[in-house]
Amino acid sequence: MTKLDQEALPNKSMLIQAESLSVGYSKDQPIVKDINLILEIGKNYALTGGNGSGKTTLFKTLTGLLPALNGKLNIESRESISYVPQSKKLQLHFPLSVKEVLSMPYKSFFPLSSSITDSVWWNELIALSELEPILSKQISECSGGQLQKVLIIRALLSKAKLVFLDEPMDALDHLARKSFQEILALYRERCQASLFFITHNLNYDWKDGFAEVFEIDQGRFFHLSKGDKPNDCEHNDGSH
Length: 240
Description:
Elements: E1 3-4, E2 14-23, E3 32-40, E4 44-49, H1 55-63, E5 70-75, E6 81-84, H2 98-103, H3 120-129, H4 144-156, E7 162-166, H5 174-191, E8 194-198, H6 202-205, E9 212-217, E10 220-223
Parallel strand pairs: 1-5, 4-8, 4-9, 6-7, 7-8
Antiparallel strand pairs: 2-3, 2-5, 9-10
């Protein structure tokens, strides 16, 4: 039986603990199974794997957007989590401005107040991200890069302790990528937060390195940084 938020985490530094977790859309055919991981406060993590391997499915399960199929999943607090999806997978046609999207609450993942736009934190993030010129722009009219910036900043406005980022740099050009790496580094230090990236290029997406690197390959979950991937599995070095 899958357990969600039912047991206290054994260590106060833990944000998420998964044991023998299976994820997917059908209990008969899990996309990834036997997932064991611990995510702690103040660390950077990376998840790599081929297209369609189940990386985003795992992220959605860990954030609570998708129910787990089997195993054990303990989460310190849903309100301590935020999630940055891929902009290229979103189709936003509703009539809202960038400012409205940034300031609107989103369930418990983004517990924003109505006064968020008047806060020092808002002003600082808007200035650092250089989003001020497009705040009145319709979100549906944003380019892929602009939308990705909005999604990242919206997640950071919540001051969450754990931020899941699904290929967050793919839509950004070189200058924007460098700028947002600096913003994320500042956020991690300021909020004592953890960042968990889905990435195809470990060095390019995050220059400061990772505490642990995970990989999904052929429906199996590996801790690459611990060398637990057997030789009979095709190795993925994160450069694809």
